[in-house]
Amino acid sequence: MITVHVKYEIDPDRIADFEEYGRQWVDHVARFGGTHHGYFLPGEGDSDIAYALFSYPSLAVYEQYREDSARDAACRETVELARRTRCIRRYERRFLRPLDPAPGS
């Protein structure tokens, strides 16, 4: 399994737009075989940082999702929403793997 951690720098005046972007990507990830663990929006502290976590069974399946989603009309519309509203200033993507429990756990 591979989990993708995305850190977003967002425009705090465009949180509603970012929320809509996030709702749409949750659905997109599920359509392409992934599990979305949610978006995490600013509460207290930094007002311009948000996070997302989603997983795929393997890096190969994730890479296929990237290829397929780039051709998908609904995904392209969601990307256009972010571009048009400028709700995302920048983002960083990290790939994580879960720690397997110790044998016998």
Automatic annotation (TrEMBL):
InterPro entries: Dimeric_a/b-barrel (IPR011008), NIPSNAP (IPR012577). Signal peptide: none annotated. Residues 7-100 form the NIPSNAP domain. Transmembrane segments: none annotated. It holds the Pfam family NIPSNAP. This is NIPSNAP family containing protein.
